[in-house]
């Protein structure tokens, strides 16, 4: 219930759920993050306004997918990509991957959150 303070309006809901799930995806992978946070966020927002519930759900989808950019373990596709390029003789260092991934991922999540928030407000 400590998370409930972040679900006061559309904007705080979409930004919090996006960034929290993105960070979690970068640490433990996007699939377990999706499973665990979807039930937690659902339980928190189920009694709130439908627009907040919807913003949280879209934020979770946005964050778990784009959060995979944050680290090489963020998604199975990235893990496979790193494995394949290593087999081809290329070596991507984690210290090079993570800063670029965080930059690109953060910008993408911010833009995505803005579009999701505007869409929910307009429609």
Shape: elongated
Specify the biggest β-sheet: none
The number of distinct β-strands equals: 0
What share of residues are in beta strands? under 5%
By DSSP (H or I, 4+ residues per run), the number of helices equals 5
User: Could you give the distance between the termini?
Assistant: 29 Å
SS-based class: mainly alpha
What letter string, H or E per element, gives the SSE order?
HHHHH
Rg: 16 Å
Q: What can you tell me about this protein's structure?
A:
- The chain is an all-alpha fold and 123 residues long.
- The protein is 76% helix and 0% strand.
- It is built from 5 helices and no strands.
- It has helices at 10-28, 30-45, 50-66, 76-87, 94-122.
- It is elongated.
- The model has no long low-confidence stretch (mean pLDDT 95).
Task: Describe the secondary-structure layout.
Layout: H1 10-28, H2 30-45, H3 50-66, H4 76-87, H5 94-122
Helix pairs in contact: 1-2, 1-3, 1-5, 2-3, 3-5
Summed up, what is this model?
This protein has 123 residues and is an all-alpha fold. It has five helices and no strands.
Features:
123 residues, mainly alpha, 76% helix, elongated
